[in-house]
Specification:
- The structure is a single chain.
- By secondary structure, the chain is of the alpha+beta class.
- It has nine helices and 32 strands.
- The chain is elongated and about 145 Å long.
């Protein structure tokens, strides 16, 4: 029976070894890991990890010069075996661990270790370690001449006290001097030298004067750093990308939080069997970062006409429509702006098209990514238009200007530019007809208008009256005149309505107030939902759309100067023009401002009152 058990165990071991050997083939990795920075007098771990089974006794430890080995080598081995859809895989982990204590401060190196696998020798890379001398700590020393029982309360009191430099919160900015619209990053970094188990009352600043966007810190890891001669475990609490919206000296207020540090102390109750116990205390410590000031410089004077606030590094490309189009057909002009900077604020460049073309609302698509260097990606603008009249038309290149903060100058980019040939409408009959009130009429028929009535007989017919008929009576003439007047009135009214229905500008002007009211209602709903970005965007649509519809200003020519000129033509006071400019500027600046939520009610009331004043002034 004993021989049978031994044979069975041997068979199992043999089969298992064979399976692992058959399916364990893979790239062998042998590497060392240890902290890059340690404090003088602080023990730390060094691990040598291998993903295979080594030969017995083949591991050779490095020369730990400059370190004392206080524990190790401790060897651990792990195996895992899996079978998925008939495919067998296995993994092996072989780890050798040492606990070292640095002998002196300075830069030291842990040499390379070696190991053999199937006759092949593998080596780790040397690991540099910085040893920092933080000074001697006397918090836990026993006073000279005092017994252990007498010193224990003193040790506990000293240990539960956390030094001010044990937990720090710092505000770190990428730069302190920028141009208006130039991005900078600000991070709030936590430095700890004790065990922190939680945080309370976390408050971050509101960044007045900046447009702020929080960055993703999902893949962040805890790191060890040296600060003021001490070694800390560091982690970024929050990181933001800031875009200054005004010039001058702006202040980033401090962030604050309460860190809950966990302190383990020796218990006063001494157990004669188990020895001294331990007590755990949660100690709250309120910390605050420093205040930082940013010098925001204004952009240089002499900005090009095509500059609309873009700051950074950009490039532009254009895709023109086909060079030949039929009249009354639609086409699209496409412009793509890509780069790094305040990409969110990049607006559609102005497209100059002939007056016989109808340009519709620009469609915008984007793909942007935020990082500490700024917002990168692209914004693509599509300009749909319809060519109404045939002929050859030159489309000028599109211009886009931005400010380069590195070169301290404006840079103008040009793209596109083409000649469009507009051919006759393919849907027309092509037989020489002209259009009169939407009804086809040949040129010959037009010439006959006015001479298509022929008289049968000329001269007096010498007819005698048999009786006084209704025809030519007073009642007849009264009815005839009344019918003529009524017919003329109906004809003029119908003609006016037909003309108005064909006058798109007039219809738009009459519907301008109604469309604006609908948009104000939508903006009010966004305001009640505290949707800051959507509210200001809808307010801008309401104001710009009202001016475009009311004064028949094409979207491509819709600027503050053109609106001011149209208001002046209609005798509206200059104060109202300045009021419109102020409201538009406030909406543009407040659209991304974190403090703008408190001003939404005022902006809404100001916009509604302005439209009402313009309507009243025009009706007079």
């Amino acid at each position: 029976m004993r021989d049978f058990v031994l044979k069975t165990a041997f068979a199992v071991v043999f089969i298992t070894t064979a399976i692992f050997s058959a399916f364990g083939a893979g790239k062998i990795v042998f590497q060392a890991s240890c902290p890059l920075t340690v404090a003088m007098g602080e023990p730390f771990r060094v691990e040598f990890q291998l993903n295979a089974s080594p030969e017995d006794g083949s591991f050779q430890s490095p020369d730990f010069a400059g370190f004392d080995v206080i524990a190790g080598p401790a060897v651990s081995t792990g195996y895992s075996f899996s079978s998925i859809n008939g495919s067998m895989t296995r993994s092996v982990s072989y780890t050798v661990t040492y606990v070292l204590m640095p002998q002196k401060a300075g830069n030291a190196t842990i040499g390379a270790a070696s190991i053999k696998v199937d006759g092949t020798e593998y080596h780790t890379k040397a690991q540099p370690v910085e040893v920092v001398n933080e000074g001697q700590s006397t918090g836990g020393n026993t006073p000279q001449g005092a017994s252990e029982e007498q010193a224990r309360p003193q040790q506990q009191a000293n240990t539960t006290k956390i030094a001010p430099e044990d937990i720090l919160l710092r505000t770190i900015v990428s730069r302190t001097s920028v141009y208006k619209g130039e991005p900078l990053s600000v991070m709030f970094k936590l430095y700890v030298r004790v065990n922190v188990v939680g945080f309370e009352d976390v408050k971050f600043p509101s960044f007045n004067g900046f447009w702020a966007q929080e960055l993703d810190l999902t893949n962040q890891r805890v790191k060890r750093e040296t600060y003021n001669g001490k070694v800390y475990d560091t982690q970024i609490a929050r990181e933001f990308l800031l875009y200054p919206q005004q010039t001058g000296t702006l202040t980033i207020d401090p962030a604050s939080l309460t860190a809950i540090a966990q302190v383990v102390t020796q218990s006063r109750n001494y157990d004669p069997f188990f020895g001294p116990g331990h007590d755990v205390y949660n100690v709250p410590r309120k910390i605050q970062s420093q205040k930082v000031t940013i010098d925001v410089k204004p952009l240089l004077a002499g900005a090009p006409e095509s500059f609309n606030g873009a700051v950074g590094h950009f490039k532009m490309s254009a895709k023109e429509p086909a060079s030949e189009l039929a009249a009354n057909s639609a086409a699209t002009y496409m412009v793509k702006i890509s780069g790094v900077g305040n990409m969110t604020f990049v607006q559609a460049p102005k497209l100059e098209i002939p007056s016989s073309f109808e340009l519709y609302n620009v469609k915008t698509t984007e793909s942007i990514t935020s990082s500490a260097q700024g917002i990168s990606g692209y914004r693509q603008f599509e300009y749909p238009f319809i060519a109404r009249a045939e002929g050859n038309y030159d489309i000028a290149p599109i211009e886009f200007s931005y400010f380069d903060p590195d070169q301290h100058q404006y840079i103008t980019l040009k793209a596109g530019g083409t000649t469009l040939t507009i051919t006759p409408d393919a849907n027309s009959s092509g037989n020489g007809e002209v259009v009169v009130n939407r009804h086809g009429m040949s040129k010959e028929e037009v010439k006959l208008l006015g001479r298509d009535i022929r008289f049968i007989k000329l001269g007096h017919p010498n007819l005698t009256e048999n009786r006084r008929p209704f025809l030519c009576s007073n009642l007849y003439w009264a009815l005839l005149v009344g019918t003529g007047v009524a017919f003329t009135a109906v004809y003029l009214m119908l003609r006016k309505r037909i003309a108005e229905s064909q006058n798109t500008a007039l219809i738009r002007g009459k519907r301008a107030n109604k469309v604006a009211v609908q948009r104000f209602r939508t903006a009010k709903r966004y305001m009640e939902e505290q949707n800051l970005h959507a509210f200001y965007e809808e307010m801008l649509r309401a104001l710009w759309g009202y001016m475009s519809d009311k004064f028949n200003i094409p979207v491509s020519n819709l600027t503050k100067e053109n609106v001011r000129e149209e208001l002046h033509k209609r005798g509206i006071r200059e104060e109202e023009s300045q009021r419109f400019t102020a409201i538009i500027t406030l909406c543009d600046e407040a659209q991304y401002s974190p403090m703008a939520s408190a001003r939404m009610t005022d902006v809404y009331a100001e916009g509604v009152d302005f439209i009402s004043r313009i309507e009243s002034a025009i009706k007079r």
